[in-house]
């Protein structure tokens, strides 16, 4: 069930997800994935696109973590008076230090550690002719990301999907419109079996 289904704010006739409407209108669902056990998203699979007129777009945001105040992360760097920018952090013993972006302005009282990936561009298009099994590659290792997530108080990753349907859609059932879900300690995968 999508966020709008949980809040009772879905558009059209659907009560589960905006993208479940069969009304020839572009519909959007979005939300934040915040369970530390399911982050980061490492793969998206958007089932088959049945026809040439059907389209989908997705945006997967950067991984953002708010840590405990420590000199090993952006929260500690902010406490020391550092401005927003790129920094090398070492969030766990035995993990190689790595570069992240520290956002010192968006959240009061703490710095946000930002890890980028190769699918952040807005509106990546999905069509009948594209490979809709999408691997997400981060600019650091999964071991480094795992250490960051485990040492942080809170982490989240934004996702947005938009679809235009000619045929009745089957509901996205888990995590804000993202369908079947696979997880492990270090990586996670989102699977959808949606026609769009």
Explain the overall architecture.
- With 196 residues, this protein is mainly beta.
- Helices cover 11% and strands 35% of the residues.
- The chain has helices at 3-7, 74-79, 142-151; strands at residues 27-33, 41-46, 55-67, 85-89, 98-103, 112-115, 124-126, 133-135, 152-164, 180-183, 188-192.
- The protein has one domain.
- Strands 1, 3, 4, 5, 6, 7 and 9 form a 7-stranded antiparallel β-sheet that branches. Strands 8-2-11-10 form a 4-stranded mixed β-sheet, with no helix packed on it.
- A hairpin with an 8-residue loop joins strand 5 and strand 6 (112-115).
- It is built from 3 helices and 11 strands.
| Rg (CA only) | 18 Å
List segments where confidence is low: pLDDT < 50 over at least 5 consecutive residues.
167-196
Beta-strand content: 35-45%
Helix content: 10-25%
**Coarse shape:** elongated
Distance between the termini: 17 Å
pLDDT average, as an integer? 75
Can you summarize the main beta sheet?
Answer: 7 strands, antiparallel
Secondary structure tally: strands = 11
* Structural class estimated from helices and strands: mainly beta
Order of helices and strands: HEEEHEEEEEHEEE
Could you say how many structural domains there are in total?
1
- Counting DSSP H or I runs of 4 or more residues, the number of helices is 3
Short description:
The chain has 196 residues and is mainly β. The protein contains 3 helices and 11 strands; from the N terminus they run H-E-E-E-H-E-E-E-E-E-H-E-E-E. The chain has one domain.
């Amino acid at each position: 069930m999508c966020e709008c289904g949980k809040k009772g704010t879905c558009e059209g006739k659907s009560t589960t997800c905006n993208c479940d409407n069969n009304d020839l209108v572009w519909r959007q669902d979005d939300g934040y994935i915040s369970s530390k056990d399911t982050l980061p998203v490492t793969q998206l699979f958007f089932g088959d696109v049945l026809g040439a007129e059907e389209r989908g777009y997705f945006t997967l945001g950067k991984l953002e973590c708010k840590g405990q105040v420590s000199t090993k992360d952006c929260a500690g760097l902010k406490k020391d008076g550092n401005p927003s920018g790129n920094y090398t952090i070492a969030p766990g013993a035995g993990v190689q230090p790595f570069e992240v972006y520290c956002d010192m302005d968006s959240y009061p009282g703490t710095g946000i550690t930002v890890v980028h990936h190769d699918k952040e561009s807005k509106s990546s298009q999905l069509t009948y002719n594209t490979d809709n099994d999408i691997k997400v590659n981060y600019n650091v290792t999964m071991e480094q990301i795992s250490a960051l997530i485990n040492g942080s108080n809170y982490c989240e990753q934004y996702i947005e999907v938009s679809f235009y349907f000619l045929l009745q859609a089957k509901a996205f059932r888990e995590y804000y419109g993202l369908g079947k879900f696979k997880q492990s300690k270090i990586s996670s995968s989102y699977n959808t079996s949606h026609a769009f």
